[in-house]
Amino acid sequence: MNLDQLAKLNRCLAARQAVVVVSALEEGLEPGDRVAVLTPDEIGARHDAEALHEAFRSGKSGMVEIAGRRFFLNVHLPPVKLVVIGAVHISQALAEMARLADLDCTIIDPRTAFATPERFPDTRVIAQWPDVALPPLGLDRYTAFVALTHDPKIDDGAILHALTKECFYLGALGSRKTHAKRLERLAATGAAPEALARIRAPIGLDIGAVSPAEIAVSILAEIIGAMRAKPSRAAGTSA
Hints:
The chain has helices at about 5-15, 30-35, 50-60, 90-100, 130-135, 150-165, 175-190, 195, 210-225, and strands spanning about 20-25, 35-40, 60-65, 70-75, 80-85, 105-110, 125, 145, 170. About 35% of the residues lie in helices and about 20% in strands.
């Protein structure tokens, strides 16, 4: 890897941008020709596009063989952030499960009686309104956003903020009837129909979940499914 390639890799890592280092495992190549540093947007119609897309999807580094040539793909993905609005019972279970799945979880709730370290050990808790707490977090395409308070005063503004970002997952608690009313309120603020269509509601996979822990399982499963989805799958469809 030459200095320009190393500088590009460092820029991508600093900017929370996914990047893969493609190293040709063969003799007789100059260092600059043996290594390529690529982001997902740079794959295009490359002959190794399928292998690169799969590497970004799985997050796994390893050796691949393409057209009789061997390459090592070293994948660097930003840590996935899970931002949860609402320090509720579902959030307590979800935060613990997210930690086991290596998701960087943050709980936001202005209700200080709920948003406490005692209720959420080992999890970052921000006892502020979402309009204050969300901007510094820098939601991006490696962020899963979940709204769980069931209170429009807290959830709606947070959802509108998330809709302006590239979150790979955006889900909200509530029945179909509740979500229909939510969509009416959000549309009244000027939110575009295509943006509102990104909201997954009712949230979580339909596994018949009843308890807070079961609902948390269904939410985390849906998040992981969205995170690992192949490029050909449609994103943002409701469960």
